[in-house]
User: Fold this.
Amino acid sequence: MDKSLQSLDQIKSSALDMAVRFGPKLVVAIIILVAGYMVGRWVGNLLERLLVRLNLEAPVRSLLVRIAQLVILALFAIMALQNLGVELLPLIAGLGVAGAGVALAMQGILGNIVAGLTIIFTRPFHVGDYISIAKEEGEVLDISLFSTTLGHTDLSKVVIPNRKIVGEILHNYGRIRRLNIALGVSYQTDVNVALHLITEILQANPRVLKDPVPQLGVTRLAESGVTIGVTPWVNVPDYDAAISEVNQTILETFAARNIVIALPQCEIRMLGNSA
Assistant:
């Protein structure tokens, strides 16, 4: 019984000694972490306002703000550990060795991160642009640190790793695209009348943009007829619908005005001696 009481007294004494020695340091460490959290939020809000002025996309702004907050919290965590008397040099050395091994095992992911940072800061395209790259094309829906997501008109999505984008030839259409419509009319057609009708059709279509001004004219004198090129601009989401609407309206208007659409023709001549 006496030994049990002595052991209990020793535990209480040790606990009291630990509380006296490390209690204030632990309280200070907690205060440092709370201060780091508050400073991180303040810096994050400040950085958010700065990035808005730089016209960066929302996903990019959120990523950079989160990184800044984590860096500040990590710095304050190091200060808290130092206050508790933790030896940081062996810990940093161990983390360095482990980090080297992780880096070798995650070369692809690190490559995507570096490429993502390159895209974020060089800004070759923005969310909402229509781009073509790596045999894929679509509207940019999201730009993250690891990948870029493209959307198609059939509502499907293509996720491209960022390392497949940096260093490749990129075609950025921006937020508008040009329709390339070619139609053939007979050589007996009054071309000026046909061009006037097409101009009226483009002006009446709400999807066709007034600026840039649509371009149209005779592009080729083909074997079977005159080829008229029609190249109006539309917003990226209206591309497919605009092609269908303009083609259908041209077909109906030409049929109503008796303008003949040129058809492929082949003339065969038979030569021989007369009987």
Remarks:
- Residues 134 and 168 are 7 Å apart (CA to CA).
- The domain at 124-174 is CATH 2.30.30.60 (SH3 type barrels.).
- The mean pLDDT is 80.
